[in-house]
Automatic annotation (TrEMBL):
PANTHER family for the chain: TRANSMEMBRANE EMP24 DOMAIN-CONTAINING PROTEIN
PROSITE patterns, A to Z: GOLD
Transmembrane segments: 189-208
Protein name from the UniProt record: GOLD domain-containing protein
Length: 218
């Protein structure tokens, strides 16, 4: 029973990165971008497969001839600093490590070496965040090695969750600092307004008193 429970948890954590999977359609030379928050010092692996519509088969098929795929990754929080720029075959992957916490922009562009050719493309893209090492096939030689593998994977996923929590704490701290700054500025402005109103009132009373004295009313 314990082995089944641990296997179930392991499957959830292992399959969790697949939530980043995308499936979309683009034309040749059309760029499709999406955004992803990454914690600092995190390994990101992007796996992609781009297929081209073939009129003869009336379906999307692999094109290993003149089709290339441009991949770019920019740090939007750092003036769109580019950290990845590659031109790959239609099916492949790329890997990079985030240098700082923040939003990253991933863009994919199918291009033909024959610039005159245009086509429709189906794109599959998976972004795996965390450990870039592929899972080792234990083949369940014995329960001990199998459970050890599962435990190691759970530890890696927990470390990923901790990194994401650190990113959230940094954002909360920045938001708190901004809120305190705004509240402080509002308080100062309110005090200044009160001082100006009191000074204006005193000046008006003094002026009216002098006026009445000159008019011999008082």
């Amino acid at each position: 029973m314990a082995i089944r429970t641990l296997s179930f948890l392991w499957a959830i954590f292992v399959l969790a990165p697949l939530a980043h999977a995308l499936h979309f359609y683009v034309n040749t030379d059309e760029t499709k971008c999406f955004f992803e928050e990454l914690p600092k010092d995190t390994i990101a692996v992007g796996k992609f497969a781009v297929y081209e519509f073939n009129d003869q088969f009336n379906d999307y098929v692999e094109n290993n001839g003149n089709l290339k795929v441009e991949i770019t990754v920019d740090e939007t929080f750092d003036n769109n600093h580019r950290v990845v720029s590659q031109k790959n075959s239609p099916i492949g992957q790329f890997t990079f490590t985030s240098l700082d916490s923040g939003e990253h922009k991933f863009c994919i562009t199918p291009r033909h070496t024959n610039w005159s050719k245009k086509a429709k493309h189906r794109v599959f893209f998976d972004l795996i965040v965390g450990d870039a090492k592929p899972l080792v096939d234990s083949k369940r030689d014995n329960d001990v090695s199998y459970l050890t593998l599962q435990t190691n994977e759970l530890i890696k996923k927990l470390q990923q969750i901790k990194r994401e929590q650190s990113l959230l704490r940094l954002r909360e701290a920045a938001f708190r600092d901004i809120s305190e700054s705004v509240n402080s500025s509002t308080t100062k402005w309110t005090i200044i307004q009160i001082i100006v109103l009191v000074a204006t009132g005193l000046w008006q009373l003094s002026y009216l008193k002098n006026f009445f004295v000159k008019q011999k009313v008082v």
